[in-house]
Known about the structure:
The protein is an alpha+beta fold. It folds into 2 domains: 1-22 and 172-215, no CATH class; 26-169, no CATH class. The protein has 8 helices and 7 strands, in the order H-E-E-E-H-H-E-E-H-E-H-E-H-H-H. The strands form 2 sheets. Strands 1, 4, 5, 6 and 7 form a 5-stranded antiparallel sheet that branches. Strands 2-3 form a two-stranded antiparallel ribbon. A hairpin with a 6-residue loop joins strand 2 and strand 3. The chain is elongated and about 65 Å long. 21% of the residues are buried. The mean pLDDT is 91.
Amino acid sequence: MPQQFAEKYQLALEEAMKDKPQGGLAGFEQEWNLLDEDLRPLLTVGAGPSQHSFVDYLRAECIPAWQKQYSQLEVFHWMVEWATRPYYTPRGAIYEARLMEASLMNALHRAGLNFGERLHYWHGNLLFLTDIGHQSIPGNWSLAKRRYLEKCVDLYGDTLATTGIHTNISLPDPLFAWDFMHLSASERGDKHLDDYKSEFYITATRLLRAFASLF
């Protein structure tokens, strides 16, 4: 019954917040394209042996150390991702996502002052056709990750150059534990709780993907 589920959910949420106050059920991953004053993607800075990705420069020189931990490299020189911490209410994740966007604006302003031009950030597709290849991948990735990204570039090309927002949503762990314990022996079989959770999230993702926004 819907009413019973709502009550079970609220009880599970209270239990999760008590057991893991640092945890959460909602979070955001925001991807951005970094653009120059002509709205073209920012590629590299420096020349010769000292040349490196713009995003590597931005994270090393323009983002404060305490904020850097929330940002990470993406596939190409001109892309960056910011990830919030988990929150038990979507509002907390939304507020932090907006603060991270403001942090990116500040970092781009610092970089723009250094280079004497106004820099921009942008969601979605690039506004100009851009030559994309292995040389477009940031240099600070580990060798294993770089090889993986090179393979992705070979397979998908410029379709990887689209940025967007990923929403991470989960259910309270106690809710899964209660449901799992109430399965019959035949329904449970040889499954463990982790298998049960994975099966739920895989199925839910497959069913809900058609209703997700596309960038």
